[in-house]
Specification:
The chain folds into two domains: 47 residues, no CATH class; 178 residues, 3-Layer(aba) Sandwich (Collagenase (Catalytic Domain)), CATH 3.40.390. Helix content is 34%, strand content 19%. It is built from six helices and nine strands; from the N terminus they run H-H-H-E-H-E-H-E-E-E-E-E-H-E-E. The strands form three sheets. Strands 2-1-3-7-4 form a five-stranded mixed β-sheet, with helices on both faces.
């Protein structure tokens, strides 16, 4: 019995040694025993010809990192009384939105906001109201909202200091009522249409002040998630004839 055990251990030790030798050998000539097991050089050829793994993340935004200076304007219409307090709007679209972007970007993006409100628009709500359907939105009304807001602020705001702008209409809204749509990205987006070839366009106040950065719009009662969603459209920008954040 002892002899059998001794031989068993000896056989096991030899097997381990042979495995180590095979593992450390170079490629075997074709037709040799090693070639039969490892298929000669083919196993090494397969390894070197394996294609690189695909880029699972795809193209990455270069404009959505670092400090993001955001101009926030809460606007009101002459015929509509806002229902949400200015302080509540400010906290949601500055403090809460900033915390959200910082957390979701793992600190790669940080939002510095300047809040202006209330900004009075010159015409009643009906002149700015839009369809709740993305594909039926009148882009001239989107432009009118933003440029009228810019005109009302142009004497006190330097638009060149900001990469992005948020317009907050002071009108309680559900789909088809109030302003018409609770939240959307205008630039890139509604100003050129969300299908086909969305791109950044230049907006101008009546005094000639220009802004070509990201613009998104969210009503006073839009939840934080909607603000964040459309802000990310703006932060992503455009790539290959489409928004990088779909």
């Amino acid at each position: 019995m002892l002899r059998k055990i001794a031989w068993s251990w000896r056989g096991l030790s030899l097997g381990v040694v042979l495995c180590l030798v095979w593992a450390c050998q170079g490629p075997q000539p074709a037709g040799s025993r090693g070639g039969d097991v490892f298929q000669g050089e083919n196993v090494f050829k397969r390894n070197t010809e394996t294609p690189a793994p695909p880029d699972l993340l795809g193209p990455q935004s270069t404009r959505g990192t670092g400090e993001q200076r955001l101009l926030v304007a809460a606007v009101r219409f002459p015929d509509v009384a806002p229902r949400v307090s200015l302080d509540r709007i400010r906290r949601r679209v500055t403090e809460e939105l900033s915390d959200y972007v910082k957390a979701q970007s793992y600190g790669l993006a940080r939002v510095t906001s300047d809040f202006v409100g209330w900004v009075s628009l010159p015409e009643p709500l009906a002149a700015y109201r839009i369809s709740p359907d993305n594909f039926k939105v009148d882009r001239t009304r989107v432009r009118k909202l933003i440029e009228d807001a810019m005109t009302a602020m142009e004497d006190r705001v330097d638009f060149t200091r900001y990469q992005n702008m948020l317009i907050v209409p002071g009108a309680a809204t559900v789909p088809g009522k109030g302003y018409g749509m609770m939240c959307y990205c205008a630039n890139p987006g509604m100003l050129t249409g969300v299908r086909g070839n969305p791109r950044f366009v230049t907006l101008r106040s009546k005094g000639g002040r220009e802004f070509s950065g990201g613009v998104f719009v969210g009503t006073e009662n839009a939840p934080l998630g909607m603000f964040a969603h459309d802000f990310l459209h703006a932060l992503g920008g455009v790539h290959a004839d489409g928004r990088l954040v779909p």
